[in-house]
């Protein structure tokens, strides 16, 4: 459905601009994004929207999660809330570097795992988790996300969402932190 929206938008722009050039191929999720473009990390101050699919942090999200986040962002915008993405897909190497940094910051692997998963356990590495910004968007998504299938997972991370609501729109109980 989202692909049709993109194709329709391209057709409208083509008609408005009066060009007969063929529409470019547009994919909502691009598995061919070269790793040289990034490992999912964002530079300080970089702001992404759920529609910045050219960036690997967004473009490599699971297609179902991406569609849910995009639909939620549109609904939030209708309520006057801007939704940004602070983190999405991450390479295993980047996830490991985050864990290593957390171990240094918190003094032990056990303490670090309350905030950062291992690469094999992180749903960011599989493209099945997204961190939303800022606080207004976090609270909007906590209140409204289940209707899009999106649920807050960890009590200590208001920004972390996964596509885990059941068909009735119920989210699982919050885990205290990433360690469980």
From TrEMBL:
It holds the Pfam family VanY. GO terms for biological process: proteolysis. SUPFAM superfamilies: Hedgehog/DD-peptidase (SSF55166). GO terms for molecular function: peptidase activity. Residues 61-139 form the D-alanyl-D-alanine carboxypeptidase-like core domain. The keyword Hydrolase does not apply. Residues 1-23 form the signal peptide. Keywords: Signal. CDD domains: Peptidase_M15_like. InterPro entries: DD-CPase-like (IPR052179), VanY-like_core_dom (IPR003709), Zn_M74/Hedgehog-like (IPR009045). PANTHER family: D-ALANYL-D-ALANINE CARBOXYPEPTIDASE, PEPTIDOGLYCAN L-ALANYL-D-GLUTAMATE ENDOPEPTIDASE CWLK. This is M15 family metallopeptidase. It comes from Mycolicibacterium porcinum. The lineage of its organism: Bacteria, Bacillati, Actinomycetota, Actinomycetes, Mycobacteriales.
